[in-house]
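user: Here is a favour to ask of a fellow structure person. I have my own habits and do not want them to colour yours. Could you put it straight underneath, so I can go through it closely?

assistant:
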Amino acid sequence: MDLERLKVTTAQMGFTERDDPFGLFAEWLKDAETKEPNDPNAMTLATVDEEGLPNARMVLLKDFDDRGFVFYTNFESQKGQELLATQKAALVFHWKSLRRQVRVRGLIEAVTAAEADAYFKSRPRDSRIGAWASAQSRPLEGRFALETSVAMYTAKFAIGDVPRPSYWSGFRIKPLAIEFWHDRPFRLHDRVAFNRATPTDKWNKVKLYP
């Protein structure tokens, strides 16, 4: 085994000593924004349906702070209904260019109407119309039906602002567990997990075998 390849920089070692998972995530996301060519805020969202069968799909992180990780969607979609029913979810961020991964598990809450309104207004006009036109996750008769719906709402909101649909809002995942993973030679990776029993408890940190 090449022991020289096992040596790491001070910066690489530093993340395993950090006690603030949100601060560490902020640093890693900032790094990703300079290294990842597409969607550094992309994350896998895992939910569970009414039969207990897992579902996973890619969504985009739109905000985060010490309260949790926020994304927006149609609450009447499959993921929206599953999140409302279970109020639990998991996330995975994978930045291949950085050889890093973050896993999140936690509880779900809806963002406030003010938060949802502010983000909806920041979206391009066509995206706001699309939120009205798409009955997300439900059967589509054909592309023409979708285009007809887009045309209808484009005409309806031809003048003035496009309001936020009542069924379109955001979810905040309040983490109970956050795990950081960094690739190392010979698969001797660095892993650090932060856990707590409730979203208001202090974090417990443990280093994990790879």
The longest helix spans residues 21-35.
